[in-house]
């Protein structure tokens, strides 16, 4: 007997899907914002900081890049209360995902920083620019342009990774889908629906990254060797 797909029972729970989608957007946005800040600081600290700071950041990066996100999430959610730090579900999820993203972003941004020719930095010093001005104008923005496609791809993975927060009962989209599936017994229809929602969210975030890139990289950066091409033309976030 052929299986007859029925989406109406799933769509009857549209308010739950909307609530889960909103929670996913909040979780992803907060995790991405904190993770990118952490990754930028980590990359600068590892390349420009003292040796002890570089070692500490390298240790953090290796630990978080070589352990599963689920394990990190459980450690944050279950271990922190054992030392007297009670954290809500959403806070634990954001913290774990931001720390995970920060480790990957550190290495991605660091790769862009070390790709900047030393001659440009020396030219900035010869012009009397401060260390902060050199980091901001000569190192960080050109480096961000170089690694923008890789970074936005990692941010997209973070958006999709929010589904793992359902393991600690965060009321995001995957958790809502699990509840709907248990009530309707329409597994295929439920997960096809949330797959389409995730695809829509991914394209929405990629469009947002494209807009941000247009604002940040409104002109090409000329290096001592070549012109760094606009990453938006090479498919940022693909």
CATH architecture: Orthogonal Bundle
CATH superfamily: MetI-like
What proportion strand?
under 5%
C-alpha termini separation: 41 Å
Number of helices: 9
Number of domains: 1
Q: In percent, how helical is the residue content?
A: over 70%
Q: Going across the major beta sheet, what is the strand order?
A: 1-2
Question: Judging from the principal axes of the Cα atoms, what is the shape?
Answer: elongated
The helix/strand order is HHHHHHHHHEE
Overall mean pLDDT score? 87
Runs in which pLDDT lies below 50 for 5 or more consecutive residues are: 221-238
Q: What's the story with the biggest beta sheet?
A: 2 strands, antiparallel
Plain-language structure description:
- With 238 residues, the chain is mostly helical.
- It has one domain (13-234): Orthogonal Bundle (MetI-like fold), CATH 1.10.3720.
- The protein contains 9 helices and 2 strands; from the N terminus they run αααααααααββ.
- It has a two-stranded antiparallel sheet.
- The longest helix is centred in the first third of the chain and has 35 residues, at 14-48.
- The radius of gyration is 21 Å and the shape is elongated.
Briefly, what is this?
The chain has helices spanning 8-11, 14-48, 51-65, 69-79, 89-114, 118-126, 131-161, 173-184, 187-216, and strands at residues 221-222, 227-228.
Give the key terms.
238 residues, mainly alpha, two-stranded antiparallel ribbon, 9 helices, 73% helix, disordered C terminus
Helix and strand topology:
Elements: H1 8-11, H2 14-48, H3 51-65, H4 69-79, H5 89-114, H6 118-126, H7 131-161, H8 173-184, H9 187-216, E1 221-222, E2 227-228
Antiparallel strand pairs: 1-2
């Amino acid at each position: 007997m052929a299986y007859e797909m029925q989406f109406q029972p799933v769509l009857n729970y549209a308010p739950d899907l909307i609530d889960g989608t909103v929670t996913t957007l909040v979780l992803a946005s907060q995790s991405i914002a904190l993770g990118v800040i952490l990754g930028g600081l980590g990359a600068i600290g590892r390349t420009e900081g003292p040796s002890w700071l570089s070692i500490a950041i390298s240790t953090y990066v290796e630990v978080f890049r070589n352990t599963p996100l689920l394990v990190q999430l459980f450690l944050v959610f279950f271990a922190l209360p054992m030392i007297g730090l009670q954290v809500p579900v959403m806070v634990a999820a954001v913290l774990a995902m931001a720390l995970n993203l920060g480790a990957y972003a550190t290495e991605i941004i660091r790769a862009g920083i070390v790709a900047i020719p030393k001659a440009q930095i020396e030219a900035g010093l010869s012009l009397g620019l401060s260390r902060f001005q050199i980091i901001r104008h000569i190192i960080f923005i050109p480096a961000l342009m170089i690694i923008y496609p890789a970074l936005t791809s990692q941010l997209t993975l973070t958006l999709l990774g929010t589904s793992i927060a359902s393991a600690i009962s965060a009321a995001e989209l995957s958790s809502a889908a699990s509840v709907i599936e248990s009530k309707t017994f329409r597994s295929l229809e439920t997960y096809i629906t949330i797959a389409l929602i995730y695809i829509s969210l991914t394209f929405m975030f990629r469009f947002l990254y494209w807009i941000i890139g247009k604002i940040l990289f409104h002109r090409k950066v000329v290096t001592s060797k070549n012109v760094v091409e606009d990453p938006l033309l090479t498919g940022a976030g693909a």
